[in-house]
Design a protein that fits this description.
Elements lengths: L17 H16 L14 H16 L14 H18 L11
Length: 106
């Protein structure tokens, strides 16, 4: 008779914060454009197509459980999740000071 031992401490891969993931995705999208000019804040380069790209990436990250969200509901349908992603982007663009940092040449 073998007995299974359950370990309460299991190493789990920590999911990135929503704030950091939004920032990372915007930076990646802006870098792909390659039109960054020194002397302007990052927010200058966040256009509608860039927002759309980031919103889509966030949506799929939530769907694939790569990013978690706090919600009273256990699961959101696609329409609710897209709306949540849009709100998440608007929220962090207004709250995160990193978007107002002026780009400098190194």
């Amino acid at each position: 008779m073998t007995e299974e031992i359950k370990c309460p401490i299991v190493e789990q891969e920590k999911k990135p914060s929503q704030k950091d993931m939004v920032y990372k995705l915007f930076n990646e999208a802006i870098q792909e454009d390659g039109k960054i000019v020194a002397g302007y804040p990052l927010k200058t380069y966040i256009t509608k197509p860039v927002k759309k790209e980031v919103r889509s990436a966030l949506f799929f990250m939530f769907k694939n459980n790569e990013l978690s969200y706090k919600s009273n509901k256990t699961e959101k349908n696609d329409k609710q999740l897209r709306k949540y992603c849009s709100g998440l982007i608007s929220n962090w663009l207004s709250k995160d000071d990193r978007y107002n940092v002026v780009v400098v040449n190194e």
